[in-house]
Amino acid sequence: MFKKILIANRGEIAMRVIRTCKEMGIKTVAVYSTADRDSLHVRFADEAVCIGPAPSSESYLKMANIIAAAEITNADAIHPGYGFLSENAKFSKICQEHEIKFIGASPEMIEKMGDKATAKATMKEAGVPCVPGSDGIIPDFDTCKKVAKETGYPVMLKASAGGGGKGMRAVWKEEDLQAAWESARKESKAAFGNDDMYMEKLIEEPRHIEIQIVGDSNGTACHLSERDCSVQRRHQKLTEETPSPFMTDELREKMGEAAVKAAEYIKYEGAGTVEFLVDKHRNFYFMEMNTRIQVEHPITEQVVDYDLIREQILVAAGVPISGKNYYPQLHSIECRINAEDPYKDFRPSPGRITNLHLPGGHGVRVDTHVYSGYIIPPNYDSMIAKLITTAQTREEAINKMKRALDEFVIEGIKTTVPFHRQLMDHPDYISGNYTTKFMEDFKMEDPED
Hints:
Blueprint: E1 4-7, H1 11-23, E2 27-33, H2 40-44, E3 47-52, H3 63-72, E4 77-79, H4 89-97, E5 101-102, H5 107-114, H6 116-126, H7 141-151, E6 155-159, E7 169-171, H8 177-192, E8 197-201, E9 207-215, E10 221-233, E11 236-242, H9 249-265, E12 270-278, E13 284-290, H10 297-304, H11 308-316, E14 331-338, E15 340-341, E16 347-348, E17 351-352, E18 355-357, E19 364-368, E20 375-376, E21 383-391, H12 394-407, E22 409-411, H13 417-423, H14 427-430
Parallel strand pairs: 1-2, 1-4, 2-3, 4-5
Antiparallel strand pairs: 6-7, 6-8, 9-10, 9-12, 10-11, 11-14, 12-13, 14-21, 15-16, 17-20, 18-22, 19-21
Helix pairs in contact: 4-5, 12-13
């Protein structure tokens, strides 16, 4: 087992990893930028190393600085969390070269699954259902036009190196295709330094449902059922739940089986998710695989009583998994609390928290790194907390979430707490009748109007 793990991340996920490491008797090293010197992960780790100034390109993405921090502290493993370098094949390889265990996927696995076009081709080989569309990268616009015609409109253009909704364009008719092709490539080049595009059939009224999987070094994998992540804004998830209100026992078995087949086909090691789009007829299609821990992993932990970070560490240390699948025994919902103003088009709201009161009680979990007096820097993702409620039924979990949101007091900045409170009262959310298009029609009701 590892003696010391460096956490190459910040915020709540760094705190989350530190907690599990402490419970396992493993020493921890926090890394931080100058903007994060007062963050809780710095305070609670056994050691902390400053790795650069505020911009992430000069700190949390600076591979040489992170490796240097691991070497001077004698860390024998690095946990990358999510985001930043968690799915960076080069960083995973550098860790290997320095004989530091990367608690995540191998460089080969990240390369295979990180490029969405390659991942789709691999999943087709594995016999996992895929969305109809191009076979890999589209070389030029003439080919793009031909593929769109063969696939049938509407289609979705996607950046092969994409993420977070960048380089994606929905196209409903041929005359709009060229403008979409050019703007998607331009956006992808600016965001990822890569303008490779591929195309998929646009699935109407889709739900975004992912299956949590874990695989070990022996090539054995299991699944821990699904999470419904369909409530999204600009392809960014806002809230997640498990089990999905759209799921049937038969569909769960089929999707779980497909996800395990995908993981075992590529001999996946570690925790990951296989993400699917599910249409209104409950046909499901492979979308992508995330070779890391997910932001929304706590809801899975709550319904199957399973520490996913602990399992990541055990698998990285060579401990085999049991191979049995897990099914939800309870219902759990997560609301991402962001430092944004939901009344002003979710505009970022960094600044000092002047007063903070976190909700509590049975079935309430808060993962956060903030406290009263903490200054939220403008340099990073705006998520400052995750509020998770768990109960026997979905109705009870929603009611518990309403109560917890009413207790959640954050002053000095704007947050998405009011949005989530209104969401929990929305009739379509309450009935479970929502898709990835839900936010297109959602209107915040301003109490001052």
